[in-house]
Amino acid sequence: MTESTLKGSCLCRAVKYEVTGQPKRFYHCHCSRCRKVTGTGHASNLFLQPAALKWLSGEEQIRLFKVPEAARFTNNFCAICGSRLPRQGKDSDVVMIPAGSLDDTAPIKPQARIFSGSRVSWSCIDGELPVYPELPPP
Ligand SMILES: [Zn+2]
Ligand SMILES: [Zn+2]
Questions:
Q1: Mind listing the pLDDT tens digit for each residue in 10-36?
Q2: Where does the pLDDT of residue 91 fall: very low under 50, low under 70, confident under 90, or very high at 90 and above?
């Protein structure tokens, strides 16, 4: 897969971003944290690596919430409209993009459903993608 440059924004468009990198993984995650943070049945997250995240506008509106008991689970969101935004971990070359925040077309298709062990019965599912009870094998 070749390097992609992807642009996106939040619902109120105060925050705009650009991510450049190699599209690697695209998962629907059914875990309980993703459910809470999206308010929906699953999160659809696109991961690029190596990748770089650049804020084009509204960086001062970004808030970060880290689940205290979680090793890594954090939520980047717009303080005005509450939309989820991409995140690049400290000292990490991985950028996670909530796919719904993209204004560009995602360069790859979803590859799997993960954390199906936490899936609620009303959440969308199909027979096409591989399903993993937690994380897929590396
Ligand atoms: Zn916003
Ligand atoms: Zn999740």
A1: 999 999 999 999 999 999 999 999 999
A2: confident
| Ligand 1 midpoint to CA 59 (Å) | 10
92 within 8 A of 48, measured Cβ to Cβ: no
Distance 127 CA to ligand 1 centre (A): 34
Element (H, E) at 35: helix 32-38
DSSP assigned state of 102: B
Written as six digits, the tokens of 7 are 């642009």
Q: For residue 135, which ligand has an atom nearest its CA? A: 2
Name 114's bridge partners: 29
Give the number of whichever ligand sits closest to the CA of residue 63.
1
Q: Is the pLDDT of residue 68 over 90?
A: yes
Pairing of strands 62-66, 74-78: antiparallel
CA 70 / ligand 1 centre spacing (Å): 25
